[in-house]
Fold each of these.
Amino acid sequence: MCLRTGNKLFTILLLVMAAIGFGCSKEEDIFVRIEQPTSSFKTYIAEPNYPKLRRESSVVLLDSAVYFKNLSDSSQTSSYQWDFGDGTTSTERHPVHSYTKKGKYKVKLITANYNKAFDTASVTITAVVGQKNIALGPNVNNSSIDVVETVRGFLLLGRQNDATVYTEPATTYLMQLDENMNKVSIKTYPSTTRFNSISATNDGNVVLTGTTTGAGQNNQLIKLDQNGTLLWARQLGENNSYSKAVPTPDNGYLLTGSRNPIAGTNGTPQTVLLKTDAEGNKVWEKLLNEEVVMQQAYNTVVENDGYVLAGLKGKGAEGLACSYCDSLVIAKFNTNGALTWKNTIAWAINSDNLWDTKISKLQNGQYVVINSNARGLYFFSATGAFLDRKLLSNTTYAHTGTKAGNLVVLNHEWGNGFRASVTGLSPEGIKKWEGRLDGSQTLQSGGIRCCSDSWPVTIHALKNGGSIMLANRVDQREGSYSYIDVPVLLQFDETGQIQ
């Protein structure tokens, strides 16, 4: 038997054996027409705020419909077999499907005709979480403070109050989110409790800075389990106010903050470092006002052999920090609090005044320093040598180094309103991508209001790569001229694609 093809026509030569006389045989060509079908399709999604409008896309939000438009050859004898890549199938001509877990799914369509000839087409669908707006009600002011990744998903730290009662004090809450950033539970605390940062610990719990006594300062280290239950709280210093606490390799904690001047005296708050043991008891404390003079350090990079932080060195003891007269100080201390190295350079970042100074470490061993009221990125070597300075288009607010070694910066844009945005850069500080929030507000009465402003809060690296940003969107209350905050969470992969 031989087979030759052309113009979708298969020719099959069959040997037909027939007895003629004494073993004679006869050959005949038998032609069988088999039409080869063509398989093809496109994918569409509905616009989130306008569900009747659909656009072609291979990226879809979780639990949102993907509309498959079959462009294959059609006839009464055609059949279709869909494989959506998540274990489900369909035989409809134009099916609709949704995904419940984020990831990439290869969708296949097999188009066959009556004589079993077939063709296959495929498209990869990416299912993403997308932007999560954590509203607690149309009249609840919900202001986020920090977010931390856990083995369960995420913990969102914030404060809430009834926006219709102006005298009602805000209460602190800890909200559990699953891996898709959906609300699982929320635990609220008495009005005397206030938290201002949260970090995951080495034993699967969390530590926070703040107060449980209603004090005017954030002078406590507080440990909670992942359900938000208080394990212990330690007051560490009368005049200290801590901005960040992180675990150390020996299972203790390192706190970064400032020491306020004694009431009735002049002076500027100085940066303070405080090391504790695993139970939160003070091991040593270092006030940076002698061999290293530093103010306004927000956080510290913890390493196996010590701690690196950066801050402001004021030209004088009084007055506001200013970019034209003050200096940037970066320093490393060993695990016992002794100075290892330090460096001081001019700020020169085109800002009227300076706020919190924040530091992160990249995978290449370099440190990046920003000030949360300026546009400058300062790069330092592993030994504190100044390497480079980059200027971004917008004010920096927070930054982080990712698992792949890139740098991601949370920005504050000013112009026609104000809004949070994200800039992705290479390890050398070269801009690669930008990401922005959707500021459209869906109204309870129906319709859309555009466009809400937003305040940047923080950005963190994710364990499996990429980053997660947190901002507070400012929504107008319906029927009122007042506004409420709504936390917004958005994840990016290393290339800036929303996850």
Amino acid sequence: MEPKNYTVLRIEGDYAILKEDDGEAEVFIALALLPEGVFEGTRLHYEMFAYSLAE
């Protein structure tokens, strides 16, 4: 799977809704799988089955 960048659109309970930066797809991800301190508007990088804060 190729690396992708996402933006956190909103947080609902224990889940975050992410929007793919290069597309229209929305992804629902458990907050436990995301780096600590994520909030709405945070940019994330996904690579090798792990999320990290985008630089």
Amino acid sequence: MSYVTVSAKVPRRLKELMDKYGVKPGPIIREALEREVRRRMLEELEKKARKLSEKVMHIPDEEIAEIIREYREAR
């Protein structure tokens, strides 16, 4: 896995406290960024799911079940 450097400016007092308590910013920043990216990915998927739901809402449940059965049998 390759890495890139991302920097952030923090208030001097916060940096002093980080040093005092031995807080390493790398793992914390990485975790926060991963959490935010996951949140936005889920948000995007929810929007796509809503749009798809609106498009297939008019199709009867029985027809959807039949399509799924045919798909499974074809595999």
Amino acid sequence: MNQKGMTLIEIMIVLAILAGIMAAIVTNVRGRLAEANIRQAKIQIGQIENALEFYRLACSYRYPTTEEGLEALVEAPGSCPGWGPEPYLRSVPRDPWGNPFSYESDGSTYEIISFGRDGRPGGTGENADISSEDLN
């Protein structure tokens, strides 16, 4: 009797091979996604910096204070009569992990920070802080 088909052992071997290939692909894609998120955070910080420079030019050569925050780029604060006429950003961006950017300023200098995937200060890899001071 000539039977055609695969035995259970052959099917399990094929599934094990496919699982190994999928694991390798997922690991590679996850690493690329982490790199892409870090690059995106750096790009977003650069865009915020550009908006801050336009704000500074319109607002007597000062940046929004920490209290005014990045919201001053979206809605005019009372402390800047030359603001606008259009917002410097459409909305206050969030980093690629969905966390708000940290912004601190005394009016003459500023620092923008993404705290990475975990949203907490410090960390390594994808959890590492990305600061505007490190980009310049």
